[in-house]
Amino acid sequence: MVTGCAWFGGKKSPGSATTQAQPPALTGINQTNGAKVTVTPDSGSTGNVARVNPAAKFAVLNFPFGNLPLVGQRLYVYRQGLRVGEVRVTGPTDNDNTVADIVNGEAQKGDEIRVR
Known about the structure:
Strand order of the largest sheet: 3-4-7-6-5-8
Distance between the termini: 52 Å
Number of strands: 8
Helix content: under 10%
Largest sheet: 6 strands, antiparallel, barrel
Structural class: mainly beta
CATH architecture of the domain at 43-116: Beta Barrel
Order of helices and strands: EEEEEEEE
Radius of gyration: 21 Å
CATH class of the domain at 43-116: Mainly Beta
């Protein structure tokens, strides 16, 4: 007779501790063009671009209340799931808004902001 975890239905005993570790990043090769692709789990808070001044290269960012990034923190700008820019928080902050300089790329109203 063969017995094992499958016999117990994969259930853990009530006293066993379970920890949820973040899965490692997955790396693979894109089948269409052979480029290396890295996929990482999303673990940061997100916000969005509320306003942009392209001439002065700054944007007003909006985050859920209590989740504002720190001054000096670098964040990525995403549009339709693709990274299109990078910003650095400079402040000032007001409630759930903060100001950031556009460091690389671009930003448009409605773009998603993710913590690096």
